[in-house]
Amino acid sequence: MADKYPTLWPLKPHTAAKHAILRRYLQAWFPKLTAYNGRLVFVDGFAGPGRYTGGEPGSPLVAVETVLGHTHDLSNKELGFLFIEEDLDRHRHLAQEIEKLSVPANVKIQTCHSTFVETIDRVLERLGPTRMAPAFIMIDPFGIKGLPLGTVRQLAAYPKTELLISFMYESMNRFLTTREFMIHLDEMFAVPEWRAARDMSGGERHRFLVDLYASRLRSIGMEYTRTFEMHDDGGRIEYDLVFASHRVEGLKAMKEAMWKVDPTGSYVFSDATDREQLTLFATAPDLAQLQGLIVGRFSGRTVPVEDIERFVIAETAFRETHYKRQILAPMERDGLVQVITSGRQKKLSYPGGTVLRFI
Fold first, then answer.
1. What is d(CA 303, CA 307) in angstroms, rounded to the nearest whole number?
2. Do residues 147 and 219 touch, judged by C-beta distance below 8 A?
3. C-alpha 313: how far from chain center
4. DSSP 75
5. CB-based contact 257:16 (threshold 8 Å)
6. What are the boundaries of each domain within the chain?
7. Helix (H, G, I), strand (E, B) or coil at 160
């Protein structure tokens, strides 16, 4: 076997949180993309066996069930699912789980016993450079093998591709100085700069590697990225979820999903966290922090409101719903922001085309 896990294993809380993010995102992704496209594709590159020992659904079933239970009518669209699993026993179990599903004719499901890289190479060779339908691709390896940036770059070449990658920091941290793993890290980052992390430790090492990987994704065209830390029950980082998209709308939707799982906006989930408490007693976002970030970027400048929103979405942990009523309106009342031009119909609103001066 390629990893330490058996055919089935127990569902961990951080995996359940990842599935919650996936489900919430796909609930928005399917209807938005089908509004303008006749076909959508979901790919799970390391699909697993389909269920956990407790009977909980794995990511392939989460994705299919999201479609089957969606309130939006998707019946006139073709929805394709490709589930890739290298381990033979897991692939067999996954195929058996898929066979149990009752799916409509417009839902096409294929399981593949192969590696992620081999399958993607075959698929993209068949499709050619322009024929990829809008695709959400989940890449969730067990370690640091089998995730070369060259393959990710091929996927990123399609303008309607979005990626959710598990950046396996715990494995990386453990083997960072092991010579036999250098080739996998070279393939993953496609630059030698990762080696600088060998002289770091703790949070510095983690942040350096995550930031480097996010920058590598941006370098291949995935302009909008966001990361989410997954911790074990001892508070150690297991991995980071890294979302990457060409579209700001995709990042908006993913941020919404991530804020639902961690309403503090710190984008951290720990197995030691009481998820029910988070759901019932959501912590408000740190608006003082957001105001400081906005002022730090725009102080003394005159800018359109679109620039402020783009900054909030792409360069902070906050959402586009956090900055107008909560930040700009109080600042305007206090004379810290002046509205230069606006087509607003009511006070303290900031529709498109509004231009503001930060004092």
1. 7
2. no
3. 14
4. T
5. no
6. 13-280, 287-358
7. coil
Distance of alpha carbon 187 from alpha carbon 215, whole angstroms: 15
Please give, one letter per residue, the 3-state secondary structure of 173-238.
Answer: HHHCCCHHHHHHHHHHHCCHHHHHHHHCCHHHHHHHHHHHHHHHHHHCCCCEEEEEEEECCCCCEE
Beta-strand pair 224-231/161-167: unpaired
pLDDT at 279 over 70: no
CB 44 within 8 Å of CB 110: no
pTM: 0.88
Q: Write out the H or E segment, with its range, that includes residue 82.
A: strand 78-85
Residue at token pair 């096409």: 108
Looking at every residue in the chain, the average pLDDT score rounds to 90
For the chain, report the end-to-end CA distance as a whole number of angstroms: 62
Residue 205 burial (CB count, 10 A): 18
Cβ pair 165, 233 in contact under 8 A: no
Residues 3-53: tens digit of each pLDDT: 557 899 999 988 998 999 999 999 999 988 888 889 999 999 999 999 999
Tokens 């179990």: give the residue: 93
Domain 13-280 bears CATH identifier 3.30.300: no
Sheet containing 355-358, strands listed edge to edge, beginning at the edge strand earlier in sequence: 302-304, 355-358, 337-341
Res 274 pLDDT > 50: no
For β-strands 268-270 and 224-231, DSSP reports them as parallel
pLDDT tens-digit series, residues 295-326: 999 999 999 999 999 999 999 989 999 999 99
3-state secondary structure 256-281: HHHHHHCCCCCCEEECCCCHHHHHHC
Amino acid at 248: V
